[in-house]
Amino acid sequence: MKKFTLIFTAFAGFVLIVQTNTLQAQQFPVRTTSVINPFQDHPAAAGVLGCMDLHMGFRNQWSGIQGAPQTAFANLHGQMEGQGDDFHGFGVRVEADDAGAWGYNAVNFAYAYNLRLSNGARLAAGLSAGFFQHRLDLSELIMPEFQVANDPAIYGGNQFIVPTIDASLWFYDRTKFAGLTIQNVTQPSMEKISQFGKLRRHAVVMAGTQVELDGRWMFTPSAQARLGSGVPPSAEILGMLRYDEVVGVGLGYRSQSALIVAAQAKVMDYLTIGYAYEFNVSALSGAAPSTHEIVIGINSCSGRQKGRAIPCPAYN
Questions:
Q1: pTM value?
Q2: Residue 267 falls within a domain, yes or no?
Q3: 285-296 residue pLDDT tens
Q4: Structural domain count, the chain
Q5: Is residue 91 part of a domain?
Q6: Which residue range(s) make up the domain with 188?
Q7: Chain segment 171-197, per-residue pLDDT in tens
Q8: Nearest in space to 61 (alpha carbons), one of 279, 303, 266
Q9: For residues 193-219, b (16+ Cβ closer than 10 Å) or e, as one string?
Q10: 163 occurs within a structural domain
Q11: Residue 266: which of 274, 257, 254 has the closest Cα?
């Protein structure tokens, strides 16, 4: 009960900080730590750990460039018993992103139905629904002409709120995992800032496996891709070498973008810290050579998974 209170208090505090210091956005930010925090992108992963699980993180992209993307994110999820070996997952995800004059806040509530397959693996289908608040900070823009700078049409619709729905699948067993999520299924209109604009549909795909090595060493390779209309696809590979599920280091690469160095440590049975450093190899490398991302995980499992869950390599 004390751990649950700690988790809920930490989540509420993080949300309050995000809302008080409103970050202003790339429409869908990239996250290197997704492999240790899959629920942030995949609502079907709700309840996979078997206990209440909280993740909070921050990403500072392209350090050194004014107005570069900064993203804060958090999620809380757990499970409820179902019939037989099945269970219901539930959770909430929040995110705030800032990229120069553009920004957004998003809150989504998720539900997943998780069933056991005949081979012992598990498959979950999930939905999340919430709202997306997009805004434009006109004070960050320099208007070249007096007429434009004083045009009421420009200063009119500088923010809007739209409903969002994501659909998701999550498959896993003791050695592998895979997820697919379609974000913005309904493609809500952004007509307040563009007559033909929509919040575009995106797909996020992730897969990985866990390979046992000598002794207590394990190797977890993973890959993920983000696909969307109007934006170039992003693909990423990451290999994590872990010892006794306590510490891990990894190397990775994001297509035409960055080299990745990642680390993860279990400080206590219920507390995990992850960090990723990206060395920029794109055209921006001279002005902004690095990106930093940190994520903190807190759960109430006391070192072991509970309920109807089986170990998922993404959460080990």
A1: 0.82
A2: no
A3: 666 678 999 999
A4: 1
A5: yes
A6: 2-208
A7: 999 999 999 999 999 888 766 665 556
A8: 279
A9: beeeebbeebebbbebebeeeeeeebe
A10: yes
A11: 274
